[in-house]
Structures are given as structure tokens and as C-alpha cells.
Design goal:
By secondary structure, the chain is an alpha/beta fold. The chain has one domain: 3-Layer(aba) Sandwich (Mannitol-specific EII, Chain A). Helix content is about 45%, strand content about 20%. The protein is built from five helices and six strands. Strands 1, 2, 3, 4, 5 and 6 form a six-stranded mixed β-sheet that branches. The C terminus is likely disordered.
């Protein structure tokens, strides 16, 4: 199972994005991944929208982890968007979401591996210091450093 930082690349990290709705945000994420990987953004968006119909992927504290399985990728893929202003994502705590981590898995990936990665990401994001640092990171490279450091800290706990 890959470390969190290995799922992301600077090309799939966007800081200070403006979005006014959950759908627009999911479209931004789909386009971010599509541009970086050369795949169809519409297929990713549709998969994300279908998953959100099952229930919100917002986990509270301003964080959402939308995820889906798509046929157009071969490996687990992560993307990150930080919003200028949070949007309503139907979170249980009713707080707007401003830190969004996308996780896409190939259709052939086992459900267990997909769920382990989701759990690993959710565990790392429980750390309020990590969340705050992500809200102030000045570059995609800094986001990657924070994710790598967060993973090391969660292993030590």
C-alpha cells in the first residue's frame, strides 16, 4: 500500500481554488486529474457524482474525501484542492469544506486496498496541526511534504 504522499503529484494539487458549489468543486477535481493523466474528466465527474448520491464524503473539520472507481486509470490516484472559501458539502458537522482530497481507484483494485487508503488519509487528517498547516501551505510541494510528515507521525502514534 503506497504512502499518502505517493498518491499525489504537484500537478494534481491546486491551492486557493474558487468554487461555489459541491458540483463545481467535483468538476474542478475531475479536470485537475484529467489534465495531469490525460483521461476523460466527464467519466471521473460522473463516478464522483454517483458516489456522492450514496452519502456525503465530507468527514468534518472542513475536510472531504470524495472517492470513486474509474476505468480510465491503472493505479490509485490522489488529488488535493484547497478552496479560498469553503463550500457546503453536506457534512455531518454542517461546516463548509475547504480541504478536499480526491482518491480514485482503478475498477480492478480490491475494495480492501481502497478502504485502507481512505482510512489512512482520514486518520492523518484528524491531526489539527496538519489541517492548519495544509490551510497555509504556500506550494504544492509543501503540501506533499506535509502529507509525508503526517504519515510518519501517524505511524509513530
Amino acid at each position: 500500500m503506497p504512502d499518502l504522499a505517493e498518491l499525489f503529484t504537484p500537478g494534481r494539487i491546486a491551492l486557493d481554488v474558487e468554487a461555489t458549489s459541491k458540483r463545481q468543486l467535483l468538476r474542478e477535481l475531475a479536470e485537475l486529474v484529467a489534465r495531469d493523466l490525460g483521461v476523460d474528466a466527464e467519466a471521473i465527474l460522473e463516478a464522483l457524482l454517483e458516489r456522492e448520491k450514496l452519502g456525503s464524503t465530507a468527514i468534518g473539520e472542513g475536510i472531504a474525501i470524495p472517492h470513486a472507481r474509474v476505468e480510465s486509470i491503472d493505479d490509485l490516484v490522489g488529488a488535493f484542492v484547497r478552496l479560498v472559501k469553503g463550500v457546503d458539502f453536506d457534512a455531518l458537522d454542517e461546516e463548509p469544506v475547504d480541504l478536499i482530497f480526491l482518491l480514485l481507484a482503478p475498477v480492478a483494485t480490491s475494495s480492501a486496498e481502497h478502504l485502507r487508503i481512505l482510512a489512512k488519509l482520514a486518520r492523518a487528517l484528524r491531526d489539527p496541526e496538519l489541517r492548519e498547516a495544509l490551510r497555509h501551505a504556500e506550494s504544492p510541494e509543501r503540501v506533499l511534504e506535509l502529507l509525508a510528515a503526517g504519515r510518519r507521525q501517524s505511524r509513530a502514534a
